[in-house]
Amino acid sequence: MDNKLAQMAADNFLNKGYSCSESIVQAAIDLNMVPKELLSVATSFSGGMGSGCLCGAIAGSQIVLGYLFGKGKTNTARALAPEGASAHVADVVHGPCSSQAPVAPARALAKEFIEEFKKTHRATCCRVLTAGLDFHSPERKKHCVNMVESCANILSTMLEREMSKV
């Protein structure tokens, strides 16, 4: 694993006491992608939102995507772009200028993320992904760190691709 986001997220989960969703968001915070206030948002998405539904690592990734590419984020690409990037970087987020209001790309990216995750893991439900693993077992911890790494890798790949459009 050579992906910085994935390395940091895995370390957050394994060694720093963060949950699956918090681990992804905290890594994005540490890389200055999102504000620190998003960490508290991520807390309620842990463990399938407390009910075993959506995998928390997926939810944490979706929080980052939503923050960066959600409604009203006209300057996302500019904020993420290296200094000296094109003056038209907002086109990456909203497409070429048009007379119609732009549609936030977060929904399309969210769907793409889920589809990519399912290619490897077939399901997104925490209960399904961790079936047969005791909640506090080392086996589940190992399995969940793999989910965190997988999500961080997908997220990182998507963000790198979006930045290459700048």
List the helices and strands and how they pair.
Elements: H1 4-15, H2 20-30, H3 38-43, H4 46-52, H5 56-69, H6 76-80, H7 90-94, H8 106-121, H9 126-129, H10 138-164
Helix pairs in contact: 1-2, 1-10, 2-5, 2-10, 5-8, 5-10, 8-10
Summarize the structure.
The protein is mostly helical and 166 residues long. The protein has helices spanning 4-15, 20-30, 38-43, 46-52, 56-69, 76-80, 90-94, 106-121, 126-129, 138-164. It is built from ten helices and no strands.
Oligomeric assembly: single chain
**N-to-C SSE series?**
HHHHHHHHHH
- Bulk shape: globular
Q: Give the tally of β-strands.
A: 0
**What characterizes the major β-sheet?**
none
Kindly report how far apart the N and C termini lie: 26 Å
- Tally of helical runs: 10
Evaluate the radius of gyration: 16 Å
Low-confidence stretches: 81-101
Structural class: mainly alpha
Helix content: 55-70%
Mean pLDDT: 85
Strand residue percentage = under 5%
